[in-house]
Amino acid sequence: MLLKEQSRDGVILRIVSVTTGLGDYMNLIVAVDRNWAIGKDNKLLVSIPDDMKFFRETTTGKVVVMGRKTLESFPNSKPLPNRVNIVLTRDMNYDAKGAVVVHSKEELDKELEKYNSDDIYIIGGESIYRLMLDECDRAFVTYVDYAYDADTYFPNLDEMSDWKLAQESEEQTYYDIEFYFRTYTR
Ligand SMILES: NC(=O)c1ccc[n+]([C@@H]2O[C@H](COP(=O)([O-])OP(=O)(O)OC[C@H]3O[C@@H](n4cnc5c(N)ncnc54)[C@H](OP(=O)(O)O)[C@@H]3O)[C@@H](O)[C@H]2O)c1
Q: What is the pTM of this model?
């Protein structure tokens, strides 16, 4: 990861971190609307097949980290297939078949040490994105150009000076919905 770029007498110095496993940064993946809203009544704001496909293809075979409410928003509250599912809850009796349950950030950090950070994807919802944002350096953001009625939000990366828009797709459409696949890095 690029930590710092300095220009001295026209010479660009790049200070980069060496991949060490522990302490490396993770990925996050989210679909936001024009106001960076992400959900309402524990559901997604909109379901776009190409976005679902992108999510599935990006996270299959990887480790996905989510809050208890997001797990319960999935069909039959079942973990996502073909992925290691890690679920956060403060409920010590919570049982989620097929998922690893952790009860605190400390427990989560310990669990995540088992995996290569490149393979870890924070998948929501709001509370987990906020908890983990500082530990991510790549964000896959599906930006849907519409303002929905919402009750949960993602921090606006366009207003955060350390995050930069690195890539944006051509405009995509699904019926009358316009959306873009964006990658932000920091
Ligand atoms: N647009 C997107 O890409 C996207 C992606 C994912 C989710 N969403 C949406 O986001 C909304 C849900 O977000 P949310 O913030 O309400 O819920 P959430 O983050 O999915 O889950 C919240 C729960 O996680 C647990 N938790 C949070 N922090 C914890 C900590 N430090 N230690 C232990 N447990 C912790 C708590 O569970 P307990 O209450 O059991 O203790 C908490 O109630 C839904 O509308 C969903 O559809 C959108």
A: 0.91
